Amino acid sequence: MAETSTETTVWTTDQVMALAPDASAQRAARGMAGDRAWLESGLSSTDDVPPTVWGLCQGSGSTPYQTAVDLTEPAFKCTCPSRKFPCKHALALLLRWSAGSVTDATAPGWVQEWQSSRAARRTGPTPTSPAAPGSGSTGGGGRAAPGEKAQARRADRISAGLDELDRWLADQARAGLASVAKSGYAHWDTMAARLVDAQAAGAAGILRRTSAVTSSPERLLGELARLHLLVGGYRRMAELPEELAASVRMRVGLPIATETVLAGPAVRDRWQVHGVRDEIEDQLTVRRAWLRGASTLRPLLVLSFAVAGQSLPIDLLPGTQIDADVCLYPGGQPARALIAKRHGPPARMHSVAGAAGIEANLRAHAAALAEDPWLDYWPMTIDAVCPTRDGGAWVLVDPEGTALPLDPASGDPWRLLAITGGRPTTVTGEWSAGGLRPLGAWSEGRLVRL
């Protein structure tokens, strides 16, 4: 991998391409990464300017586009009219830097002005972002915690909504699973809408996800039982241990203001990004970024959300690690985190922290499930496994012959098979009731995003 003379670790081409909003942006960036379009470029890092790649790119007009990427977050600037984020010019500039074509240079005035304006904004109020459905968080700062009367009214509404859910669950049990499986979408959506009206959005999210497993009687029964357990947990929340009570509040959907989380103790580590997955949920795009501490080996979940027309943050690149302080939300396994402070730009991972065998990963999942029975996803970092067919299904097999099923919804793992070449390697992924969804594979000294 090429390195400049600064201490900033150069990203790989795969990491740059992972930032692209679509395939057409990737193609356009590759075509623009040559020398012909770039009048000048440089990498600057001073006390006033964090590590920033910048350049002037000649477009169709007479004035070149001013393009810059702050590598710390990353953050992007370009004067082109493109609505894509990041645009092809920013991606092409990063590709040039990745290839070693960008050298150290003093930042011009327009880069310094951009970074100064960003620094000024960071000292101001934190903007509000969409709340996560069932995340137990407001999702953004600047929202004050509700007063005691408002909290009491909300608690009453949630209790009434969960009581109605419990009666609805009893009706499903009396009707039988065969009848429930034949019910249409409206049957589930009506009850979910009532839970949303009762301000129990988390329970509504679990119910909507349950409607997707009606073809499997075993999974359907398990999901309905989890909802019944959530109702019982909420009714007895005062009797529960604090961590379990916090998990119940989070799964029901009680909000926690971002400023409350950031006021808690911070945990500093070199947090490795083991995988990122996007999903559409309740008309929001939800991004799950799985982190693990290089020293603590602690797994973390960083969630971000975007409504239609908005872009998701792209500050966590699989295969990189960040030296950062994180603050943890109460409850839930693995802990959801907010990045409170970064102590430098992302650096390339040189090993995968916390890699263990299949049995050890399953034991860790079982322990987490005991603490949080409503756990949907669990990050796994599995050492020395290779993909193979087991009848008509795909599995990961370790040297002891233990097999772990892959989630059929993720498709056939041809890319993983091509990367490994049938040889054992470390695989990162997301474990759920459907199986493992591979997110990354260690190959030739780097984590390749799947």
TrEMBL record:
PROSITE patterns: ZF_SWIM. The keyword Metal-binding applies. The keyword Cytoplasm does not apply. Pfam families: SWIM. Residues 65-98 form the SWIM-type domain. Keywords: Metal-binding, Zinc, Zinc-finger. Residues 122-135 have a biased composition (Low complexity). It comes from the Bacteria. Coiled coil: none annotated. GO terms for molecular function: zinc ion binding. Residues 117-155 are annotated as: Disordered. Signal peptide: none annotated. This is SWIM zinc finger family protein. The lineage of its organism: Bacteria, Bacillati, Actinomycetota, Actinomycetes, Micromonosporales.
